[in-house]
Amino acid sequence: MQNSGSVGVIVVANTGEAIHDMNCQNTECSTVLNIPATMVPYDERIMTFARQGGLVNVKFQTTQSDNFYLAIDRKGRLQEMGWLLYPNFNFFTWQAEGMSFLADLEDQIAQPSDVVINVFNRTRMQGENGAFAGNVKLPWDGQRIAFSKLTLDLQLQCPSTTDRTCAEWDHTVHLFVCCDDSALCGMELGRWISPYRRYGKTLSMLVN
């Protein structure tokens, strides 16, 4: 499109799909691009207006900001530190506390367990319908539940490995369970608030 004289490129996501990083692959990365490009969510109103010949004005701009920082956590991994709401060193302190919390959480998750049951594994969860796990079998001898402690490892990830592809706003995430056709069908096991434009990780105690 650059060679055809385009001054910018806008890629519209498919209906109901999230936006994602537009990255190059292999030899594509050797091509120098001199025009801006972005991806936007599908919006039926804008698409209908454009199909009818309406003029859609788009403005690309570069906003100077020194709020982007990186850090190395105690496991030696490079981590994003998020965007500072305003210049204040407290944000660095809170980020260090957060990385320490996540490292402790990973150590807990790494402890051996008698039984591990995968409910969701890299499952896309989007919109009001969310995600459905289907049938999940728990160890049961017909009379009692065969465990005394149950924890839930929940990890919310984004379309890519960078924070900027995460949801711009926080959302409420619910986990419901349905035991056949019993009165417990639709019972809420857990409820979380997703981070603001960051991935999230929690370890919740359900039974002890």
What's the topology here?
Elements: E1 9-12, E2 37-40, H1 44-51, E3 68-72, E4 78-83, H2 90-109, E5 150-156, E6 172-177, E7 187-193, E8 200-207
Parallel strand pairs: 1-2
Antiparallel strand pairs: 3-4, 5-8, 6-7
Count of separate DSSP helical elements: 2
Rough outline: globular
* Helix-residue proportion: 10-25%
Beta-strand residue fraction:
15-25%
Distance between the first and last residues' Cα: 59 Å
Number of strands: 8
Low-confidence stretches: none
Computed structural class: alpha+beta
Topology pattern, helix = H, strand = E? EEHEEHEEEE
Description:
With 208 residues, this protein is an alpha+beta fold. 13% of the residues lie in helices and 23% in strands. The protein contains two helices and eight strands. It has helices at 44-51, 90-109, and strands at 9-12, 37-40, 68-72, 78-83, 150-156, 172-177, 187-193, 200-207. The strands form four sheets. It has a two-stranded parallel sheet. Strands 3-4 form a two-stranded antiparallel ribbon. Strands 5-8 form a two-stranded antiparallel ribbon. Strand 3 (68-72) and strand 4 (78-83) form a beta hairpin. The chain is globular and about 70 Å long.
Question: Which terms would index this structure?
Answer:
single chain; 208 residues; alpha+beta; two-stranded antiparallel sheet; 2 helices
In short:
By secondary structure, the chain is of the alpha+beta class. The protein has two helices and eight strands. The chain has a two-stranded parallel ribbon with strand order 1-2. A two-stranded antiparallel ribbon has the order 3-4.
